[in-house]
Automatic annotation (TrEMBL):
This is ATP-, maltotriose-and DNA-dependent transcriptional regulator MalT. InterPro entries: AfsR-DnrI-RedD_regulator (IPR051677), BTAD (IPR005158), TPR-like_helical_dom_sf (IPR011990), WH-like_DNA-bd_sf (IPR036388). SMART domains: BTAD. Residues 867-1011 form the Bacterial transcriptional activator domain. Gene3D superfamilies: Tetratricopeptide repeat domain, Winged helix-like DNA-binding domain superfamily/Winged helix DNA-binding domain. It comes from Geodermatophilus siccatus.
Amino acid sequence: MSRALRYAPPLANRDLIVRPRLLDVLRSRFERPLTAVVAPAGFGKTSLLGQAVSENALSPAGEDRWLTCQLDDTTLSVLASGAFAAVGLSAPVPEDPRQAAVAVAEALWSAAPRHVALILDDVHLVLPGSPAAEFLRHLVGELPRNGHLVLASRPPLPLSVSRLVASGDAVVLRETDLQFREDEVAAFAESRGVPPELLDDVGGWPALAELTATAGPFAVSGYVWEELLAQLSPERRHALALLVAVGGADDEIAAALLGEDVDLRSLLEGLPLVVRSPSGWWSLHGLWAAALQHHLDSGQVAEARRTAAAVLSGRGQYQEAMGLLLDARAWEDVRRLVVEVCECCTALVPTDVLEGWLHRLPPEVQQSPEGLLLAAMAAEQASPSAAEEFLVQALEGAHGAPAVRYACLNALVHLAFWGNDRRRLEFLLEELEELAREGHPGAPAFVALLQGMLAHSVDEVRSALAAPGLSTRTPPNPVQDWLHAHLVLLRLGDAAAGEVLARRSLSHPATPVHGISRCLLLESFRLRGRLEDAERLLPYLLADMQPAKVLTSPELVTCAVSVLDVLGRHGEAAELLGRYRPVLGASLVAWAPLARTLAEVFHALSTGDEQQAAASLRSIVPSNGGRLSGALRASPVALPLLYVLLPEVRGRWDADPPPGSLADLHAGARALVELRERGSTAAAGAVPPSAWPVLRALLPVPWTAQLAVGLVAAGQDGARAIVEDLGPAARVTLRAQAATAPATLAATARSLLRAIPAVPTARLHLRVLGPLELRRDGVVVAAPELRRERVRQLLGYLLTHDRPTRTAITSELWPDLDDAAAGRNLRVTLAYLQNVLEPDRGELDPPYFLRSAGPVLHLVTDGALEIDVLQFERALDEAARLERQGAPSAALSAYLQAAELWGGDLLADVAGGTWLEWERDRLRGRFVSSAVRAGNLLLARGDTPTARTLAERALRADDCSEDAHQLLVAVHLADGDLVDAHRALRRCQQMLRELGVPPQPRTRALAQRLTPRG
């Protein structure tokens, strides 16, 4: 099947009659969870659904998302990935049918207030009892109120709907409903230009009516197909038979089957039961197959399918191509396609698809080298040992078949890499070298990468990666791109080249490597000191971290935990560690224990438990005292952790220093050791400023603070910026250094400590949404200074402007005074505000909340000073982030948190200039839009009382919000309260008339729902 027909209804080749009685049922699909159309072939199910979609596009009652099922939709990964694509999800498909259904339901829910119908055509191709059928069953149960499912199927449906029909939550149109009524027969006959009596014997069957109208008045009942085909030339019948044999075609496939001069439009124009997609794919109804079944012999059918499969596989449409080849029983072509799909270490299609292919192979093909390769790739993740056995058998039987040998060696390298089996890798390298000598085009590149992997020294790695053609190998291989990036980044320390290669691996459509490639991309950012870029990429890495992926790529946990801890998000790091610790324990990958230990050690160091960290790390030290060969395979953070905490490994690192950006880590680790063990700043003085951002991105925060003390003590005064960046998180380390370090370091630590104000012991909460109120440890502050209008205005200005200058403040608050007088007033007002915020601060202590840097003032807003407006905006920003990630349930919690914080307009009891009015308008707009969004999500979930409360609050804030009016009308409709719904609608319409603006489509749709039908 064409992907063009997968996600869009086909276009009819002929005009269709409008059938209002059926379209009315389908238009109400947005009012119930499930609508089904169940009838045998030829009753116009697809045409009817296509008409319903077209009619809805003219006057939308909701949104339609289309998915045409195909033969391999019995596998969960194929059907669910199709549903994911239809609803706009790009996340990996979970292995559990219910989890996949929940993800689709959440995507539908996130579209609220819009109603969305997911239309699945040809559902009979989903086998009852299959994982895909389970997915559909769960999806029906998980649908939100704004989510609807439409199924079209030949009988029987692969899921039971009787209970839903009985409760009124489902409607099923059946064969008797789809049969033409008398008036429809007359309308159809008129549309085809034939007398109605010609169709007297069609029995209401739409397909037979179409065929009879085309065959003409001389067709004898029961012989319609014969009469129709008799009107076509033998060449045209042959061409149609070829197209039917391959399930339809576009211009490229048609040219391969019928010659370059074929014109599909001319060939198919005017024929009944033919549809096309907007992009040019043509498909003939299944009834054509029965009519043309004797026009080709089995050899011709098989050859046509082989030809079309070759075109499809060239496009990367492996599942469609394999389906044709299996139907053709073209086993030699099947074997070749298996090799193509499996040759790059990881299969290019999901595991359950591979299993489906395997089950369709006859025993002799299953036992062939290609069949064993397929079995190995299907078993690889669940049972690496079984996969290796299959591969060894396949390799033994693949003499004289270099492509099969290459694919098997690729997969065996992957397994040996997981097992960190050097001797096995050396043997496989010899096999690949032999293949390269025999002229296999892909082998030389893999030989170079494997030599780099096995290299003992940096020079050997460079020499291996200098092999000609390595960077320009074709076809692209995502696993080899990842391995190339891995070597360049973690053996050569070349972060710039590593970024390029990681991006290249990510650009490949083979999603199994995306998680590990994204991990390398993030590490390339950190090794260049680009912590902000790493932070932006982190949510996508976390989304990649499914348990099945962590089992085979444990380094994902080390990377994510260390980044979270560097960013100060220790709670999230601890939660992630707890979630994946059992998964890492079950992993068969050799470096999984190391990856887990590095993550635990980094987290322990970040939270101040260095004693536990050292004990954990020492537990995995090899008995030979080596530097833990392959430690960097898990994460670059391994270098400083091992070097600083395990003295016995330092000699190896110092004797063979790492190159590139890894040298920055080595230099930082050496400096830390000198500072911690000898109190020497010599090594710190040699750490260049260019390395500081790298160390900030890869060291635990306490170590970064400790290193900053040494840098400043060594005369690198610019390192004070590191401490400023760390902020209060550095104070614990600085206090410890001030108390226990040698004199020079202690003095430097005290100096830096003075520059970081102490966090006040009292906790302040400032409420500015509504009337201003300040609480200290829960008690309302009644300081007389806070009643001063200028103090309140200054506080508001500092809240709404990031680091304003003194001049900007005085021009707004004292515009009529000269600079000197305004400056004096600002200093006095600042003193009042300081007294309010920190009444117990010593005279010589630096202020914590209000800080000055030259002409710039800065209000520090962290955990010591909670401000409702900042919490409000953070909650809404978090909700927006969660919405982008497709997590509406989590976003709803954030929206409700923001709504709880809203107490009214910003500083409602403070007089201000235009700056304050602008900010009030902006925040009011954010509250109204978020309250409406939350209300719509709640409405779709069935929580009408809370949704109504939010609608009413939004209208109190802004009576001109049409969206809020719409929500209130919709809530009353959902509650069946037509009186209040009409009242709310009239209020909305009156507001729109006063503003002189037309109603939005949703307002018109709600009004239509309140208008009695008929």
